[in-house]
Amino acid sequence: AGSKLREVFDKINNLLSGKAVQTEGQTVSVTQHPQGLEFVYYKLAEKFVKHGEGEVSFHRDSAFPIAVVLSGIWELHPRVGDIFLAHLHKKCPYAVPFYPAQKEGTSMEEYQRMLGYEVHDSKVEEQDHFLKRMSGMIRLYAAIIQLRWPYGNKQGAHPHGLSYGWRWLAQMLNLEPLADVTAMLLLDFLEVCGSALVKQYSIQFWKTMFFIQKSYIPRIEAVTSAGQMGCLSRLKSFVQKCLQEKEIPVPKGILTPSFWRT
């Protein structure tokens, strides 16, 4: 509910503003320790990224309520946004976007961690689980860049708005595609913020969609094996449908004005 989201936002904002906040039966304040505020900035930003790789990866619609709270907090407390991006880029280099190369002397285990895989006792997580986490983080990022906290000050610019999404898309299409990962990330990103990008960039956006269809999808196909075609097929049909209908569907779960009356 919108009212519940406001409560969550106010509690976080009050904590970061130095006010005393009740949590789990005790009163806490960032003023209780000289590094209290920095510590809370760090842990809060980390928690938002964890929501992306956990909550959003399983419940895709949850990207929007989480993102709108982060967007509002970012606007009032820019340090949270900076640290959020640092955590996000470490956990999901594809959010930069960046595909780390294996350097000489880097062990396979260390390299897999650089690519975003979780490695425990030399065991690497399964590919499906890895893709699901990356998907959740990209969907959260794509939701953040288009949402603003509705009760904030609308005079200033979005702290990390759609221009960053446009840049991400352009940089992504300049990278050589990776099997599995690239098709999934592009589809997630376009599903979540394609409709917002087309409103802002119009003809430029449609040119990009045409480029994806004609030039970039064949390049993804070239590196994709028969067993990895699932996501690529979904990306192809999504792009084709959008170009045919000259419309990008509004993402499922987007927060409507009526949500804030609940």
From TrEMBL:
Subcellular location as annotated: Cytoplasm; Nucleus, Nuclear pore complex
InterPro entries found in the cross-reference section: GLE1 (IPR012476), GLE1-like_sf (IPR038506)
Keyword Cytoplasm listed: yes
Signal sequence segment: none
The keyword Protein transport is assigned to this record: yes
GO cellular component term of the entry, any: nuclear pore cytoplasmic filaments
BP GO terms, sorted: poly(A)+ mRNA export from nucleus; protein transport
Subcellular location, principal: cytoplasm
GO molecular function: inositol hexakisphosphate binding; phospholipid binding; translation initiation factor binding
Keywords: Coiled coil, Cytoplasm, mRNA transport, Nuclear pore complex, Nucleus, Protein transport, Translocation, Transport
Job of this protein: Required for the export of mRNAs containing poly(A) tails from the nucleus into the cytoplasm. May be involved in the terminal step of the mRNA transport through the nuclear pore complex (NPC).
PANTHER family in the record: GLE-1-RELATED, MRNA EXPORT FACTOR GLE1
Family: Belongs to the GLE1 family.
Record's protein name: mRNA export factor GLE1
Gene this protein is translated from: Gle1
